[in-house]
Structures are given as structure tokens and as C-alpha cells.
Amino acid sequence: MTRRILVTGTEGQVVGSLVEAAAGRHDIELTLIGLPELDLTATDKIVPAIEALRPDVILSVAAYTAVDAAEGDEATALAVNGTAVGEIGTAAARLGVPVVHLSTDYVFSGDKPSPYVETDPTGPLSAYGRTKLAGELALAAATPNHAVLRTAWVYSPFGKNFVKTMLRLGETRDSVAVVADQVGNPTSALDIADGLLKVADNLIASNDPALRGTFHMTGRGETSWAGFAAEIFRLSATLGGKPVTIDPIPTSAYPTPAKRPGNSRLDCGKLEWLHGVRLPDWQGSTELVVRRLLAG
Q: Which of 5, 187, 255, 296 would bridge with 218, disulfide CB 3.0–4.6 Å?
């Protein structure tokens, strides 16, 4: 039976990855909805826009992701990342369908010395983190039939991301300064797309409450931004790129409007145990993306 999957957003890393993952699959009918049909700042129009399409499941992936810009525009970020997500939940509840919502490691403060689990207290440091947490809470209030998937350090062949930035900088520099005291789990949007579709399938197939709630979904393994950059340039060099060295720097040497968590590592054991979803090692997924980008 073909499943009608509604995706919020029409562009970006995760949307592009979902389109690619669904291509050629006859059991999926993927519908993307974005501007002007779905304006996440127009609260009163969200529910009717979604109800009209009558999906079997909603993948809520559209977001205000300009982390630093959100510091000066928190009202807009809150409308998109918070209020709109609650409205998506309301639409899902009226239709009687599940929602899979993509959230972020930024809901945590980053002070914990070990990877975060789903039950750890939240404590966002930035406007972006606060608005994404507001979305999680709004969705939970609107419908119990949901799964929140928190991810981190997203990269892909699409959109703007860290891997693309490093490869671009490496074209004109022999050395790149990169923050070394923030650690996390690099996560390919290609892997995120596979995880989203698997969780969506599980929610459609079963009413088990254990499959609902909050989960963490990142690439396996951890590194620092400097370590991530070093691996990108190592891979690039093996594929014919010029050697580039990393100059490890502290966060204090690279100030940004939004404060980042020092520890973004997420424990994904709950997702693997209950949903059977385990994303690949970050190094292997990074190699796939670097190869694609360098191949043009």
C-alpha cells in the first residue's frame, strides 16, 4: 500500500535527502509543501493547508535554522520553530495521523560531561535552541501521536553546511582555523532521511505508545569540529585535493552571536532499541558526501 507522506519545506538538506531517498520507491508518495501554500509564519493557515492534503504521516522538517540570525530575530524563529509546529500537530490530530518532527542538540546547555539522553534536563543557550524546544513542547501538547527526533551537526550534498564550507576554504588556504573544544556527532542528512522514513513507517504500522515521544538520532561516533574538518581534508587529499592543515582554536577565539553547546553528543540507544534505527558511523557517511561533492 502506498503511504502518502507530507514533508514540510521544499528545499534544504533534509528535504533534498528525503526526495532522493524516496526516488524509485513505489510504496511512498512524497508531497512537499512550502511557500506560498504553507507559510509557517501564518498561523491560521497552517491547519487547513495540511488538512487539504490528507497525508498518512507528516514529516515536520522545515525550520528557521539561521542560528546566529535568530539572536536578533527570535520572534520570527519562534513563530516558525515553535508556534507553527504546534499547528502542524493540531492538523495531525484532526486527521488522526502521526507526526515525525526533527529537532536539535541545541535544546541542551552542553555542560554535561557525557552524551545526553532524552530524559536529561534541557537548557538551551541560544534563541534557536529556545525556539526549537518550544516546538517540541507545542507538538507534545497538540498530539500524543508524534516522535521528536533530535539530531546534530547536519551535513549533506545539499544546501549550506560545514563540509561544503571546509572544502571551499581549502581551495584557497593551506591552513584553516577550526574550533576544537566543542564535541558532537556529525550526521549526514542522507542518513537522517532514511531514519525519518523508518520511524514514519513504524508509527503508521503500530499504535504502541513506546514508539512515540522524544528520541535522539545522530551519526555514530564523536569528534570535535577540528577533528571533523581534519577528516574532511584527509578524505579530500585521498581524492586528489591539495593538503590542508587544521589550526585548532578554542571557542573563545571564534566568537559568534549565538552561544553553542560545548558538548552536543547525543545518546541514540533509545531509538535503536525501540525503532530499530541506527545511523552509520560519521566517518563513512562523511566520505560518501565528500566524494559526491568533489565529483561535482
A: 187
